[in-house]
Amino acid sequence: MRIRPAAPAELPALQDIERAAGAPFRDLGMPEIADDEPPAPDVLERYRRAGRCWVAADERNRPAAYLLAEPVDGALHIEQVSVHPRAARRGAGSALLAHAADRARQEGLTALTLTTFTEVPWNAPYYARLGFQPLPEADLTPGLREIRATEAAHGLDRWPRVCMRKPL
User: Which residues form the N-acetyltransferase domain (predicted)?
Assistant: First the structure.
């Protein structure tokens, strides 16, 4: 997989990746997550223009996975990582996270952060294998508290969630 910035014409493909990546949540009794709409084109474009929307391109240079990130309180916060099922278990997600870590280091940021479901095998357990550690509630920065509050307002706290951090 080759990591590169997303192109403007690829934004609909990123939405398709998000829909396909969400489908397995249905089998875990999380149909609301499976049916959740992907980020709108204007949201994806905002990340793309900021240089914070990367894709893992397959052998035909088509996006197979993508990552959105933004700086939050001295860390690069991973807003979204989605891998199309056809590319699962081929290193696309970990390659995107490694790329994000490299970019964060270049910008002088000290960590990667993310929020995720604790009981979904390809969420918190996966990130823990990559060196992310759960953050106790008391250690959340103001920006992470705001992100968690927004997630709760969208109903994501119906299932157990956690903030995780990986020092760089």
Answer: 1-151
